[in-house]
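so im writing up the methods section and need the MFS transporter record in one place, dumping it here so i stop losing it
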Amino acid sequence: MDYQKLDERRKFYFACCLVGAFFVGLAYTWSVLQSPFIALLGGDAVKSTVVLCYTVTVLSSTMSPSILGGFIKKLGTRRTIALGSILFGAGYVISGYTTSMAVFFLAFGLGTGVGSGLIYPTIMGYMASLYPDKRGSVSGIIAGVYGGASIFLSPMLAGMIESRSLSFALTVAGGAALVVIFAVAMLIQPVPQGYLEYKCGSGSAGAGRAARSVYDLDRAGMVKTAMFYVAIVAFAFGCTSGMMVISQVSAIMQESFALTATQAAFYVSIMSFMSMSGRFLWGIVTDHFDKYITLCIICGLPVIAMGVLAVSDAMMVAVVCLAVTALCYGGFGSTITPITADLFGAAHVTENYGVMYLAFGFAGLAGPQIAVKLSTGGDYSMAFLAACAISAVAFVMALIVRRKVQAVIHS
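--- predicted struct ---
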């Protein structure tokens, strides 16, 4: 395919990937599925084991792009997404029928986890290659659709589970995800070599900066650089406070302000909306302003928000600070891809993003644990203080990344 023809069709490929991102967003519907799974697999006696399976899912999703990086590189974009669609969709379908914990861990823990780990990072890398001139905006839109899909999918699943059964709901949802995402894989086309230079041109400011600051490193080359470790700490530590808010806001509002579960659910929706909005907002900002200043902002604002939360017991102050943190957390979904491409080159952005995706896995494990381990009787001040310190480290790392990039640009 020549460059001009790709220009004409890339909006279609973008639309296909939006649809794919929406369906893989099924991964965010766990809160609706947890109780039905517990009932299916044996009741309260297996509750902790079922919850552990979701942890396996998260780990599988975030670690598989790195562990399977060489295999993914050989498969290519289309076959990776196709394989992911089979694992992801089939994992949901099988999970709805089994009463065996071992099969549940294989189907849901590994199947849907590895499947989403193959699909979403590959789509994000593909979009960065397809839109080298609009990486921030495009990444933000894809990330927003992925993260916001549960707003629509969760009530649909809940309705089908209530009116029919868990197996019926997961057969419909998993089957649809498999078919649609597999179709997306068949419809998109690889980005030809040289498209970055064709699209951006050596005369543009963005291309000029990239030419002087990146070296088109593959995964093996990237992890040998000091910049990689500074950047991934910025991403992982920066995401941690946001992940704590997203995962624990219901408990925080109930335990700290004596709200009912129904009342707290309203604030869960607010934080989900803020996170989704952040993906769109910061993606657009990244394309129109310095992406490294954007990174500093989304790492820096949670330092203030978490610090205020640690010393204030006012409910409205807490809501505002939690919302700001969720907004910044959403920003990482739209900035990691363009920054990875900018720092280490566009040629291997798909596999490199897969490694950077580990940042979300770290945050997904650390954020909730900080909230649970450091809170006592509804007092989350120590947890917020710890999150403030972690966010401060992320902010310092972001400043270091920006200084090093600026030094390369002006050398």
